[in-house]
């Protein structure tokens, strides 16, 4: 895997983890410390809405990097 993709994935993981920590602070009813605890449908919906903007940004960044990698691959002589 390309090192740029690895670095991007790592950054995205850290950013999403940080956002989830903020989500938990804002939603103390979510049981994140309990083993095998699952969020309710309402909590899942709240997290989906809360993280939507960052997820869109991450998807755009991954797509842009994929375009760069594909262009580089295409420009290499066979």
Specify the overall morphology.
elongated
Q: Could you give a short account of the major beta sheet?
A: none
Cα radius of gyration in angstroms: 17 Å
State the helicity in percent bands.
over 70%
The number of distinct helices, counting runs of at least 4 residues, comes to: 2
Q: What are the low-pLDDT stretches, counting only 5+ consecutive residues below 50?
A: none
Oligomer: single chain
Give the CA-CA distance, first to last residue. Answer: 20 Å
SSE string, helix = H, strand = E? HH
Secondary-structure class = mainly alpha
In total, the number of strands is 0
Average residue pLDDT: 93
Percent of residues in beta strands? under 5%
How would you describe this protein?
This protein is an all-alpha fold and 78 residues long. The chain is built from two helices and no strands. Helix 1 (3-26) runs antiparallel to helix 2. The longest helix has 35 residues, at 41-75. The relative contact order is 0.14.
What descriptive keywords fit this protein?
78 residues, mainly alpha, 2 helices, 0% strand
Task: Describe the structure concisely.
The chain is mainly α.
Task: Please render the helix and strand layout as text.
Layout: H1 3-26, H2 41-75
Helix pairs in contact: 1-2
């Amino acid at each position: 895997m390309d090192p740029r993709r690895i670095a991007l994935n790592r950054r995205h993981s850290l950013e999403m983890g940080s956002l989830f920590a903020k989500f938990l602070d804002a939603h103390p009813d979510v049981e994140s410390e309990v083993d095998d605890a699952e969020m309710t449908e309402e909590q899942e919906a709240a997290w989906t809405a809360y993280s939507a903007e960052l997820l869109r940004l991450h998807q755009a960044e991954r797509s842009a990097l994929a375009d760069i990698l594909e262009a580089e691959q295409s420009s290499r002589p066979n």
